[in-house]
Amino acid sequence: MTMTKIPLAGVIGCPIAQSKSPQLHRYWLQQHGIAGHYIPMHVEPEDLADAIRMMPKMGFVGANVTIPHKEAVMGIADQVTDRAKVIGAANTLIFREDGSILADNTDGYGFITNLHQGAPNWDPQSGPAVVLGAGGACRAVVASLLEAGVPEILLTNRTRERAEQLRSEFGDRIRVEDWIQAGNIIEEGALVVNTTSLGMTGKPRLRVPLDGLRQDAVVTDLIYAPLKTELLSYAEEVGCTVVDGLGMLVHQAVPGFERWFGVRPEVDADTRAALLA
Ligand code: NAP
To answer: Domain limits at 40?
Structure first.
């Protein structure tokens, strides 16, 4: 007797309890009447390779990967997509029927799709993008902005070397400026992106002077807790178009869900509401 397998997916991290991904994927599974499951999995770094290799044998069709495993997973997968290679990290695994594991990165896709959805009039070629921060998430932001055709990225980070490193990898459309100059370079931004953790609940405030923000700028924050950061509140008051970080989280999940469960989920107000519930 052949039994239909129930497809499993999940998110691997350490810690993992904070992840909103289970809530999101379960919402979509239910919405589409799919008999699958999406599970949060706490896996220690030393167990990562063993855990991932076991998963296809237990009925998993794929998984998301989060901090601190996004880089390590690239060495465990059999194949890594070009965009994951460019970013230097993977957040989505696909377990193929032949038993091989593909690692992809959908953070850049999530970022840029959220930006286009939240600021439909934003034209990437309209002017420079000012990017605050140079951490892990910033790499996906920079890669996707360059791919979208942004003429120049003004990049500033507390630790300048990390920004210089991104410039050496991503090329001379990136201009690195000192962190102390952040308030000045903001004046040049047709787009301003906060990729630092400053302004997040429980973290220090983003103390960059914002009075130079252009009224016609689009301002976005990767942080989604709080949903409206001080940066976004200020930018909105000035008249900028603002895009919060929740949409990035939602959009980056779409390609994985589609590959694993065979349905491309919609990202709309109801999806956001389900996550905020
Ligand atoms: P990360 O790799 O740890 O990078 C943190 C960044 O914040 C670095 O640029 C760091 O600068 C800067 N920073 C931290 N504390 C600072 C301080 N006191 N003063 C100045 N700069 C400071 O983290 P990440 O993974 O890139 O994540 C960054 C943020 O994006 C987090 O809030 C995360 O929740 C959010 N995020 C959101 C999504 C989404 O889907 N919306 C996806 C990924 C990440 P240094 O290099 O000098 O340390």
So the answer is: 8-105+249-276
Question: 126 and 70, same structural domain?
Answer: no
Ligand 1: centre distance to CA 84 (Å) = 19
**What Cα–Cα distance (Å) separates residue 41 from each residue in 12, 44, 84, 131?**
5, 10, 22, 32
Which atom of ligand 1 is the closest one to the Cα of 133?
9
Domain count, the chain: 2
What's the confidence (pLDDT) of residue 166?
Answer: 97
Does residue 137 fall inside a structural domain?
A: yes
- Between the CA of 225 and the centroid of ligand 1 the distance, in Å, is 13
The secondary element (H helix, E strand) that includes residue 144 is: helix 136-148
What mean pLDDT is reported for the chain? 96
Q: Is the pTM of this model over 0.90?
A: yes
User: How far is residue 71 CA from its own chain's centroid?
Assistant: 14
Q: Domain of 146: which CATH number?
A: 3.40.50.720
Both structure tokens of 268: 């709309």
Residue 1 within any structural domain of the chain? no
53 has a pLDDT exceeding 80:
yes
Task: Tell me the pLDDT band of 176, cut-offs 50, 70 and 90.
Answer: very high
Is 85 part of the annotated catalytic residue set? Answer: no
Q: Clarify whether residues 169 and 206 are in a common domain.
A: yes
- The predicted-structure confidence for 258-271, as pLDDT tens digits, reads as follows 999 999 999 999 99
